[in-house]
Structure formats: C-alpha cells, structure tokens
C-alpha cells in the first residue's frame, strides 16, 4: 500500500502556518525580553549589516526612508515562499519541513547571538520560535496524514481545519502581543518629562526675515520634525527612556565620565540651528534638512574628560550597536558647535531622530558625526578603530560638500510662457554659501538672489527669473562657497564621500 500523500494545498498551508507560528512565538518572547531579539528583527538587522554598500545605496535611492519597510516585506515574502515550498516537499513525510524549521531557527539564533546590543537571555526568543514552528508543523502534518489515511472522514477534516485556524489565530495574537509588549516603554511620558527642560537653553540667533523663498517653491527654512529626513541602519527604532539613559566617555582620556540624563541637562544647554545632510544624498536629492537643536556642547564635555595626546578619533556607539567615528580635530574646534542634542525645534527629540540623546556635528555628513541613541563615546585613534561605514568602504572624514539644487520648476513641469521663476537651495555647512549661479539651456550663467543668511552652518535659498519662449528648457545651478570653491560639474557617485555635479531640471513652457 502506498504511503498517503497530503494534498498540495493542505501541504502548502501547513508549511505557511509553521512559519507564522514560529514568527509569532519569537516575537512574543522578544516582546517580554528585548524587542530586538525578535527573529524577524534580528535577521533584518543582520541582513542590513551584511548587505554590500552598493545595494544599500540603491535601496536608499529607490525607496528612501521606506527602505526598512521594503526589506520587511521582502523577508515576509521569502519566508512565506520557503514555508510553502517546505510544505510541498513534505507531502509524504515531515522531514523537509522540520529541516527548514531547524535551519531558520538556527539562523535566527545566530543573528541574535551576534548582535552587540543583545544579551544571552535574548536567545530565548529564537529558541521559542524554533520549537513553536517545529511543533506546529509536525502536529499539523500528522493531522493531515491522519485525514488522508482515514480517507477524508469528516471528523478528521474538521479537527485539521480547527487546528489550522487555532494556530493561525494564535500566531497572529502572539505577534500582536509581542508588538504591544515591545512598545510598553512609555516614550511619550519620558519625552513629556524632558520638554520643560528645553526652555532653559541659551537661545539660538533668531531666524532672520527673508531666510527662505518658500513662496517661490523652496523648502521652509526650518524643517518640521515630521519632515526631517531619516536615513539609518535601525531595522526597528530603539525605544529608550531618558530616565534609563547613560553615556560613558572613556578611552584616551584623563578621567572617565559616566553621565546620566539628569547630569546632562544640569549642564549649560544651548540652541544651535544646523543643516544636516546625508552622504547618500544624490545630486539634487532630498536628504538635507535644517532644525534648531537643543543640547550640551560636546567640546566642553571632551575638555572635561581630558583628551590625551595622540588621540584623533571619537568612536561613538548607538544603543543598537551601530558605530561612528568623528575626527577629534573637528569636535575640538572652538567654533564648530557639535552637540549632544536632546531637543529639536523646541521639542524633545523624536524617537526616530535619536531620543533621548544624539550627536549633531555641523559640517560633517551624518555617518561620521551624528550618532543617534548614543550611549558610548571612546576617545581613540583612526588606526585602532574602524566604525560601521568605514568597514564598508566609505571615507573617514566626511566633510559636507558644497551643493545646490533646483526646487522650482519641478521636473517635467509645464509653466506658462513669459517670466519664469526659478528657485532652489544651496548648502556648504560650516563654510557658507557665497553665490549661486543659474543658467538655462546652456546659456550664460546668471547670479541668483540669495536668501538672508542665518549662519554658515545652515542652508541658503536662491531665486531668479528668466523670460522664456514656449518649448522645452533645461535649468542648471551651481554654488560657490566662501573658501572660493565653485561646485564642480563632474558627476561623482555618493560612495565614498558624497556626490558631486550640477543639478538640472527639464520643464516645458506652454
């Protein structure tokens, strides 16, 4: 007599349910212990860390701040496909599906074990995932074979279907419970407790009238917190309370410092308006924003610790294990103004932007000077430590390059004939924009009108007007900074130290 075979649809369902139960159980246990230990999150973080820089750069270009969501969706599709495949390969015997459960469980355990921000107890989450998925698959497979062997008796079919529904519901509820437990840290209460501290800061210079040309199509001078660009490697946003935060300053210092949040806010607080730019910003890209940050002067903190001779790098670490290296020569400049920031535009930092504390360094790309969720700062040397992005082929120093872009007209826009307003944005942080020139259809360059400068650490808007005949036109812009550098036309990729080239827009006059 032939060994009974589970029908293909039922086999595919068994494999899929096994994966769902495994993920739900792991997410639930991680919610109790540590949200980052969830198998899906841990494997997602590992995937981000192992992805080649060129692929990461493509993801940022293609998906922007939705890149993590795209990764999550891709992982879900792959896992679902593997579950279905394992089920179809297990129509006679459960071995293939059981092997998949063990392999995926081992992968999740390895991902959790290698995370620098997770302890040994975090391994309980992928272990729970492994045993739950293996158990669910084996039980469902046995019930389905029993149904087949009994030639599909109604009672056996009913038990199989009820069991499947129960497991699916259990997986969903487990995942939901894990998500809720993982968010049990009351960030809103912690942020509300920080808010009254912010008004104590020495105020930044007020934004001067005429600092933007928003009416002509440029961004507003200050970027609302909700619109401020976000590019980082965090698969899930760390949720840290200010009350639990501590920064350790150590390494090549005269005295090690351990600073609690209460200690930090008892120091002199200052406001500084700073434009930040991501090194992944392509020519004309959107990853540049401006905010008024509130925090503690980082130079003063380093001087208090006492930097020893020979040190040239501050290696900082995020709560999720991400590392950054910042030149000490920059941080120790008397007028640089790097901050340990606790506020942004008059509000506590949003969780996505580093609450409770982050670094902000004017004039440097974020990957070398803007550690979010900072918990450790080691004074060291470039020879002794390679941070996260340096190990992946990016440049060490990361000064922001002088750039400009056209904001109006938008690409391929249709505008009425006659006088056409052209407007845009330029930045050369910590050097200052001196001029912006604009030309249409390769004609002579024309100096644009610049907005009123706030500080050399912030962007400047520009505008001009052209009388254009109907038809297609291309507008280009280039900026010059106060060092005398004129933005080059030569196109360079964002890797290893930021893009270069003139930005252009094609539009049609009707």
Features:
alpha+beta, 510 residues, single chain, five-stranded antiparallel sheet, five-stranded mixed sheet, 12 helices
In short:
By secondary structure, the protein is α+β, with helices and mostly antiparallel strands.
Low-confidence stretches: none
N- to C-terminal distance: 80 Å
Q: How many extended strands?
A: 19
Radius of gyration: 28 Å
**Total helix count?**
12
Structural class: alpha+beta
How would you characterize the overall build of this protein?
A 5-stranded mixed β-sheet has the order 2-1-10-5-6. Strands 3, 4, 7, 8 and 9 form a 5-stranded antiparallel β-sheet that branches. A hairpin with a 5-residue loop joins β14 and β15. It is α+β, with helices and mostly antiparallel strands and 510 residues long. The protein is globular. Helices cover 34% and strands 22% of the residues. It has helices at residues 8-33, 39-50, 53-63, 67-88, 95-113, 124-149, 154-182, 187-194, 261-265, 298-305, 328-331, 366-369; strands at 246-251, 257-260, 270-277, 288-297, 313-318, 323-327, 339-344, 347-348, 358-360, 374-380, 403-408, 414-415, 418-427, 433-440, 446-447, 449-450, 460-468, 471-481, 503-509. It has 12 helices and 19 strands. α1 (8-33) crosses α4.
């Amino acid at each position: 007599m032939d060994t009974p075979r589970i029908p293909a649809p039922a086999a595919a369902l068994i494999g899929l349910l096994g994966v769902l139960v495994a993920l739900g159980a792991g997410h639930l246990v991680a919610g109790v212990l540590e949200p980052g230990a969830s198998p899906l999150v841990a494997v997602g973080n590992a995937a981000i860390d192992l992805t080649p820089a060129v692929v990461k750069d493509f993801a940022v270009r293609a998906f922007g701040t939705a890149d993590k969501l795209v990764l999550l969706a891709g992982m879900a599709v792959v896992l679902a496909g593997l579950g279905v495949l394992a089920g179809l390969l297990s129509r006679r015997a459960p071995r293939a599906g059981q092997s998949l459960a063990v392999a995926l469980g081992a992968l999740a355990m390895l991902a959790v074990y290698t995370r620098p921000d997770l302890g040994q107890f975090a391994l309980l989450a992928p272990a729970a995932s492994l045993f739950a998925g293996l158990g669910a698959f084996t039980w469902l497979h046995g019930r389905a074979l029993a149904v087949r062997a009994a030639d599909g008796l109604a009672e056996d079919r009913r038990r199989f279907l009820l069991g499947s529904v129960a497991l699916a519901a259990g997986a969903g509820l487990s995942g939901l419970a894990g998500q809720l437990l993982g968010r049990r840290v009351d960030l809103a209460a912690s942020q509300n407790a920080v808010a009254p501290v912010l008004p104590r800061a020495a105020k930044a210079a007020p934004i001067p009238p005429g600092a933007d040309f928003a009416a002509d199509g440029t961004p507003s001078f200050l970027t609302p917190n909700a619109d401020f660009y976000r590019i980082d490697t965090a698969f899930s946003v760390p949720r840290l309370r200010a009350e639990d935060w501590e920064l350790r300053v150590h390494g090549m210092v005269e005295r090690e410092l351990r600073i609690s949040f209460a200690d930090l806010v008892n120091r002199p607080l200052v406001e500084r308006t700073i434009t930040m730019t991501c090194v992944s910003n392509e020519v004309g890209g959107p990853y540049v924003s401006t905010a008024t940050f509130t925090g503690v002067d980082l130079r003063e903190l380093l001087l208090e610790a006492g930097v020893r001779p020979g040190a040239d790098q501050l290696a900082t670490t995020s709560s999720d294990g991400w590392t950054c290296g910042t030149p000490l020569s920059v941080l120790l400049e008397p007028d640089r103004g790097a901050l340990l920031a606790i506020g942004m535009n008059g509000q506590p930092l949003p969780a996505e932007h580093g609450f409770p504390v982050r670094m902000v360094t004017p004039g440097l790309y974020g990957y070398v000077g803007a550690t979010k969720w900072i918990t450790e700062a080691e004074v060291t040397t470039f020879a002794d430590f390679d941070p996260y992005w340096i190990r992946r082929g990016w440049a060490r120093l990361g000064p922001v390059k002088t750039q400009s872009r056209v904001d109006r007209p938008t690409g391929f826009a249709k505008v009425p004939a006659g006088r056409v307003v052209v407007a845009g944005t330029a930045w050369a942080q910590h050097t200052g924009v001196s001029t912006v020139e604009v030309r249409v259809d390769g004609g002579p360059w024309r100096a644009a009108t610049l907005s009123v400068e706030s500080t050399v650490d912030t962007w400047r808007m520009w505008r001009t007007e052209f009388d254009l005949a109907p038809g297609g036109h291309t507008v280009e812009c280039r900026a010059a900074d106060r060092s005398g550098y004129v933005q080059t036309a030569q196109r360079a990729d964002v890797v290893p130290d930021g893009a270069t080239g003139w930005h252009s827009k094609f539009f049609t006059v009707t």
